[in-house]
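Quick illustration, no need to memorize.
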Amino acid sequence: MDKNTIIGFILIAGVLFGFSYYSRPSQEEIQQMQRQDSLELVAKQQAEAEMKAKEAAAIAQKAEAAQDSTSLFFKNRQGKDQNIVLQNNLVKITLGTRGGMVKEALLKDYKNQQGGPVCLLNEKDASMNFVLEGKSENLNSRDFFFTPVAATDSSVTMRLENQDGGVLDLEYKLHSDSYMLDLKIASSGLGKYFSPSMKTINLSWYDKAMQQEKGFDFENQYSTLTYKIKDEGTDYLNASEDKTEDVKERLDWIAFKNQFFSCVFIAHQDFTDATLSSTPQPKNSGYLKEYNAEMKTFFDPSGSKTTDLQLYFGPNNYHILSTTNDLSLSDKDLEMQDLVYLGWPLFKWINRFFIIYLFDWLNGLGLSMGIVLLLLTIIIKVLVYPTTRKSYIASAKMRVLKPKIDALNEKYPDPNDALKKQQEMMQLYSQYGANPMGGCLPMLIQMPFWIALFNFVPNAIELRGESFLWANDLSAYDDLIRWDTHIWLIGDHISIFCLLFCATNIINTWISTKQQQSAMAGEQAQQMKMMQYMMYFMPVFFFFMFNNYSSGLNYYYFLSSLTSILIMWYLKKTTDEKKLLEKMEAKYEANKKNPKKASGFAARLEEMQKKQQAILEEQKRRQGQK
């Protein structure tokens, strides 16, 4: 080490030592920091002591209550939690003697991703309890151990009995061949423990909804906290937001809904003062939403009338949900079939009164779901074929008239003559029996069916677990092509049915734009070229949008696009445009001899063009006077 290096190290050490000395806190600052640390330590210790004191007081209060012979149901404050099982051939429901409420619900006919029964509720992730506001104490159901009475495979009474002979019963009955569980809360000899004005029971329900399907994003989109407003329709909390809502209306039921399954709490004397919350859970957590509901319903401490409740643990099957009215404890129209979302009113009615019945009929033939969707597509295409043909013929008429339209464009090259050109063009269309808008209305008639099936297929539980070709579950995305790394916009897989849908959509777009371009001239043709690029962009957008959607939906859209291509090919082969022009020429000659006055849209357009022409001529006259 040379002399200069040694001097350099000494200088660096000196600078560091000097900076440390200069920047060190003063004695007063050190004392202030020590005092601050001491205050924080004392505050922390005090908070911990207060917390321990509260916990000890709570434990002591419960122990005191358990020993206090004057406390209501004091004998039931200690015990051992036991499971009481109610089951039929569809569902297995477990009740706990601690709290007396449902702690687990398993569906026997449906399998989860691991091959076991679907679990809608479990003790670890869900809780259900009630609170009664007494004169001297509030009674929380989870603080008591109920005694099971008259237990069978399908019914049981969970009972609390006090020293004076007062009784609080939770009467459960599971219907045979059903997912519906009745719950009646009855009391006897308890009136003196409650204020005469106390007419409600407070209910609390919590569940961390588990992911049941393969595709998190798609299932999460259709999992919502849904509720039915009395004498009105259903509403729900936003599926993608952390949402809490105080509902002022009276409610018939509240549902913790997954894509294909729901837990529904039904109040036949209405829920009131409901506070509902839904919190989305992170992907790969195994959960979809954290649901919570706090509400009140009727309760009669005197025991003259029971509190009538029902619980539904089952599939979101339209027909099964529709039959819940037959099991209702009141005359309420529960309308639980609305848990199967079928779209906005127009699309809902198409699904409800046409698509569902057609689907059920095809499904009843014993065919695979892939063939059912194929036949469904063909039948719908056959039904809308007249409008498709009408749309094609309207486009064909515009194509054969293109030379005459080109001649008009050459006759009026000046932009100032645009109105005259439009007037002669509309007259030409009218005389030849063509309508430039004729291809739009038939296509609009088909759109509701396309959108209706967009809502129906993802909610059809019949597709769940059904395989077809390379897709092992038509209710989830097909992932024959997959990888381990998540790629932005694509994810960890490519859906082959989605690729096929987008590819046929591009071909269909190419055919449609080619036909439209061949019927247009001048500025319209130039504008169409710009629109064409936008139309080609849509299938690319669809790929990123639908790659995570169910393979059944992508398969249906692929079939729909493919059949549209085949229909266009058939119409092109069977339509003789030369003969079509001859018919139009004959109509033109007939209209020349018997001219008709324009009507409807053409008449309004003609009148508007005349007014615009008059305005332009007036402007030219004024400019000439200047």
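The chain has 15 helices and 20 strands.
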